[in-house]
Sequence to fold (661 residues):
Amino acid sequence: MSPAHSTSSRPERATEPLVQVRNLSKDYHLGSFPFRSTVRAVNDVSFDINHGEIVALVGESGSGKSTIARILARLEQPTGGQLIIDGQDIFATERRKASMKYRSKVQMVFQDPFGSLNPAHRIEHFLTRPLQLHGENDSPKALKLKLRELMATVGLGEQMLDRYPHQLSGGQRQRVAIARALAVEPEIILADEPTSMLDVSVRIGILNLMRKLRDERGVSMLYITHDLASARYIADTTLVMCAGDLVEGGESIELMAAPHHPYTQLLLSAVPDARRTQTVRPPKRDATERNANRGSGERVTLSESHWALKVPESAA
Amino acid sequence: METLTEQDRGNIGRTAAAPVLSVKNLQVQYTAEIGNVTAVDGVSFDIGAGEVFGLAGESGCGKSTIANAVMRLLQTPAKITGGSIELNGKNLLDLGEEELRRTRWRDVAMVFQSAMNSLNPVMTIGDQIVDVFTTHERMPKKAARERAAELLKLVDISPDRLKSYPHQLSGGMRQRAVIAIALALKPSLLIMDEPTTALDVVVQQDIMHQIKELQQRLGFSILFITHDISLMVELSHRMAVMYAGKLVEVAPSKDMLENPLHPYTNALMGAFPPLTGPRVELTGIPDAPPNMAHPPTGCRFHPRCPLAVDACRTVAPPLLPKAENHDAACLLLPEYVVPRERSRR
Ligand SMILES: Nc1ncnc2c1ncn2[C@@H]1O[C@H](COP(=O)(O)OP(=O)(O)OP(=O)(O)O)[C@@H](O)[C@H]1O
Ligand SMILES: Nc1ncnc2c1ncn2[C@@H]1O[C@H](COP(=O)(O)OP(=O)(O)OP(=O)(O)O)[C@@H](O)[C@H]1O
Ligand code: SF4
Ligand SMILES: [Mg+2]
Ligand SMILES: [Mg+2]
Fold:
């Protein structure tokens, strides 16, 4: 009906965001003494996710996108910063472990569908468990029905329920992982490249599904992807990462029409395009070599819904 | 008999020299209590020397199964139930374990779809690359270390990372390390199963450039599997589109993009969200992919084909020439007749 989505479906500014990430940082250590080195995987990152908002996180490989998702999923502790969900300062109040409540609110779909499904179980098992936990009072019949609905939602036939993960193709496994996250009806889904292995026809189906979940159930989403066109297709807001920094953010269409930061420009120019004649040769890079020269972290406001990180003098 | 026709006409690689890889009428079955799945059903194609050949198609259509068959890495319950796979003139299906071990990685190497997971989690990246050289080339440790550092640089990973364990690298970095390992022994055929799905487009483009450069310099051939048709068209010379275990269209990549003939290919080409212009609503291809344990009769695409006619339900269309150097499997397309004067040449 309405075009891909309308800005009006976004919640009002006045209501508090569902997720507030403030000055989040994460350091990893490599090697052992005396050859220890530190990788700053996430550097002073701040952003919001509103109720019912789809936020895309795009950017260079190794820039810290999955790390952010893992911290939001409480699979890892940050080195510094705050995570506020529904007004609750999470790291201050549930310091060590996520509560059950947190887990049913925040669900993650992992980047790698091969590693995230235990090979010893049938597909049915992966979906029944969360369904049972969520709908404790469901009769076996109601459960079966939900199971069937869930499979249909992600476009898998019922016959797949009896299979083991290794009996599915890459794309089919990815859909099982999405179904599993949906089973507990979370408030926010952290989807780490949920469609990277899907072909276009199924991918569009999953993207439309994600949008439908947002429109109908108000589910918020952090959508991590390398596919800029799909980010533009479903996300209200797009955030761009480079070497641990959030370098640009804004309303998706606006940002992609007028990228400001050099990295965003490079990223957009590298999208494969069969019809393009000249090719762009990006510079050599490695995330570890660029820990220096981060600039001041100051943001330039480009419009009400678009900002970019100030580029440090020497890099510009 | 449909398969016979396909076999006869299947030799669509119209490369002058002997092909590096020649797959003929390949059939692969998975036996399972849930019913046998013929994941690959009568597939034929050739890849010429120095040619980049793309294989595209829906999730579950059998692409990885073909790749694993060529690597002879299929394990029970998968079984090659028909056809042949010739690499440099040798039928791989006749080779014994020992010969296979020598062929694999040295003559044909593969970057797996699950590449990120195919690294050994308890060994550093450096040790894993060194291992390839010491076991396959009996290279001394020190020389192997140097080669390993060079290889990592080739895929844009700083040599410090030799001491990293796989979990210390991002998904993309792991994928690049795996590509480096596959190229280590300079194979004549490199199979890449979704090699860059985990990479950002900048790195992807860079790696693709590097692979193409290396490919041109060293002259190896590539079987390239991806669902990213834009990327495939940019990179491959020729490509095949697969649907439900069968090839439905084979053509030079540019022709495939500009003039797709098969209704399925047409639908695929129209399913990309745009990067410019107004937001649009896309529907993809309606209905679920077929259940491969019980594929549709006749043309396997008929339940989802907007052009299907009655005959499509009963007659399986063979892959036939429909334009110059352009084969497709659809009943509605008239067969291409090679012009007289040209056929005589
Ligand atoms: N456990 C770890 N130990 C050491 N370094 C790590 C660890 N996990 C991640 N890193 C490093 O942190 C950085 C960010 O990694 P992350 O996986 O978040 O990247 P990403 O943006 O998700 O990349 P990709 O798009 O390739 O998946 C990388 O440089 C990576 O090597
Ligand atoms: N061990 C198995 N037992 C039964 N069926 C299997 C098994 N492994 C794979 N299959 C089926 O074989 C078909 C082909 O799988 P394959 O992995 O080759 O697909 P693909 O084209 O590579 O898909 P994707 O793009 O999702 O990776 C799928 O329908 C899959 O469900
Ligand atoms: S043979 Fe029939 S069903 Fe198959 S693609 Fe052609 S028109 Fe569609
Ligand atoms: Mg990641
Ligand atoms: Mg596959």
User: Anything to note?
Assistant: The pocket of adenosine-5'-triphosphate (ligand 1) is lined by residues A 28, 30, 39, 41, 61-67, 111, 287; B 167-173, 198, 200 (CB under 6 Å).
